[in-house]
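S., here's the first fold you wanted:
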Amino acid sequence: MNAEIITIGDEILIGQIVDTNSVYIAEQLNLIGINVYQKTAISDNRRHIIESIDRAFVTSDILMVTGGLGPTNDDITKQVLAEYFGAGCMKIHEPSLEIVKNLIQRLNITLSETNIRQAELPDCCIPILNKNGTAPAMWFNRNGKILVAMPGVPFEMKAIMNDVIPMICKHFKLKSIYHKTLLTYGIPESVLSEKISEWENNLPKHLHLAYLPNPESGVRLRISAYNGESKQTLEQEVDAQFATLRTILKTAVYGENNDNLATATGKLLQQKGAMLATAESCTGGHIADMICSNSGASKCFVGSVVAYSNNIKIKTLGVNATDIEMYGAVSEQVVRQMAQGVCKALNADYAIATSGIAGPDGGTAEKPVGTVWIAVATPKRVIAQKYILSKLRDVNISRASAIALNMLRLELIEEKD
């Protein structure tokens, strides 16, 4: 069973906004056993929309369309779909109109004809309520193939998908697809493939392995199981394979699916009842942001000092001014003191400290752009490591943050063992 996702909007094509809708829709479709055959972004153009639908219906049974359902003249999706599916007329959908009226009233705005037209739908579609916005979704059926048109506002689309998924499951007889991802860090893709080659070569034919490398999050290993009659059986098979993989990769594995290095490290800290602080120079608070982006961060994180200037390193973190003058701010001596200093200043059990040259300026022959020193302080010791990363500022900040969290994660695992 194939599906295509079509996102409509000039703002996507010119890079004004990022298309996150297709990512979410694809995830939800895969969970119910539907293979996403293609994703397409198109303009607010009648001919483009019609041609895209015609082409997609050749290869797919389901078309998920977002965007172009707004009240302004440039939003033409509803009118084009009414024409495409041969609507006899447009009719007011009273339940949707009530939602529109309530939303407008809460905003203390006078109801206009434009607002009312939002509740007008082609008579050939099944309306799907949009409880978070003024544009209802529409379900069209052509010879058993389905097109679902939803608004492009992400939080509206996500709520509507909760109603769409059961409708799809009722309409189609679906086979099972199951995806699971194992997250690794610290082993390059080429080395990783050699390390697990024997295991990979012995995978059953209906299980497919994909390598998904990312410099900031490591290599993700995804197993996809297709065409199983029982999703539970597929899950059990994949879980058994990943159990074997964990024994091969050991501490290189830090989580599954939507985990990240911050959540993995946070869980280890919480298991110890310990608190973390960060002292960040070149990463500028990015490590703290990664930690605080996860629910429950307050159980393992006390705070951060963004010690960008040497003055803050000296006065707030207690770094020796002579060491900065002698060795430079980007040095082992300084980053060790930063880690110890923030532990003391914020009364933390563990600390991460970073100091480096993020770029694109500031490098020297001795310390080129991308040079980063990272330290981790524990109740027992302080470790520090130098890295030479890239010439790109954003990459250096992201990679240094990930490396730092992984250094702490490995320390916590070693202490636990």
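And the second, which I think is the more interesting of the pair:
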Amino acid sequence: MRQRRAAVMAIGDELVLGQRLDTNSQWISARLVERGVLVVEHVTIEDDADEIARALRRLSERVGVIVSTGGLGPTRDDLTRQALAHAMGEELVEDEQALGQIRAFFESRAMAMPEANRVQAYRPVSARVIPNEVGTAPGLAAQVGGARVWCLPGPPSEMRPMFDREVPGSISTDTEIATAQVQTIGWGESRVGEAIEDLMARGGEAVVGTTASRGIVAVRIRAIGEGCRDRVQELVREIRNRLGPIVFAVGDVSLQQACLDLLRQRRQRLCTVESCTGGMLGEMITQVPGSSAAYLGGWVTYANEMKMREVGVPEGVLADEGAVSSACARAMALGAVRRSGADWALSITGIAGPGGGSEAKPVGTVWIGRASHDGACQTRRFRFRGGREDIRAWSAISALAMLRLGLLGEEMDLLFEEERRDS
């Protein structure tokens, strides 16, 4: 049973302090699940040999597989090999083959090996060195208590090929794990949870949970054992039936990808014109490979002069209504459609803060416009919460949600929406 359960450790002060984002644990967990190994714990731990050793011993009593990343470099704060030896109750010894590989790495670059790198050739007595074909930090494979342990370097370019080469083939399990993710936009997490509350009850054949991030609620499904794939697909169908039009994708598909897919299916094209988001919407769209097939481009009209000159916002609209208004969002979107020749245009204008708000238009007030080539236009006023980057991100995501509704011919309220106008 232990062999079917795993823990992933991310080692480094920079991770604990938030100076760097741990992407390794997510990647490793996904690969382990593909092998039928369920990850039950993630641990992020500082560069402290005693703490790392304690974590290894504790986890070895719970799981059969431990994969750690980081702490295998040549400097004084790289302490994973020492911690592993401590957890195993063994001494460190120099591995001649590893030392030769490290020297060869430097020689291939016409450099002498710094003496500091010699420590990377050390391993606990019974551990095995895993060659690093990309960098200087060999990995380590060992046994701590009842758990098999792999210690891998932190840089993904070194860690990933080492993991793929060493770990999957060493894990033997007949357990099958199936997962799926249903992506939604438009409802809050609590409302989604209410609609599928009975499916989220623990102790059944499958586990269903939700995760929310800036308006997007993902419904996660996991099942283990015989028939798990069929059970997961049954739940996907049931969840889609219950949630209806708020479901925009099944799987790891972004909202912008889903919108671009709809545009391509209809052979239509989009343009954008942004103020407070400063190009964030366009940047999100162009993260998708092949987005040029449906996205023409856009404008960043931060100043009023740009709004007038680039997309033809009338000076009177800005004087009478202000830049943060339905009239301005409407003029921006319609002007963008006319000048670009696109089928759809999205406009965003608002107050992202931290300053610039007023009693009538507080920070977080954003108007979003959606215009089509036939001259129809809808604008919606939102009041977003959070800091500047939260407001900007919510604005871009909500604009995409409006586009999706327009493409589908659907109408529904979106989160934080306060007013809607059609023309």
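Why I say that: The first strand starts at residue 5 and ends at 11. The mean pLDDT is 95.

Talk tomorrow,
H.
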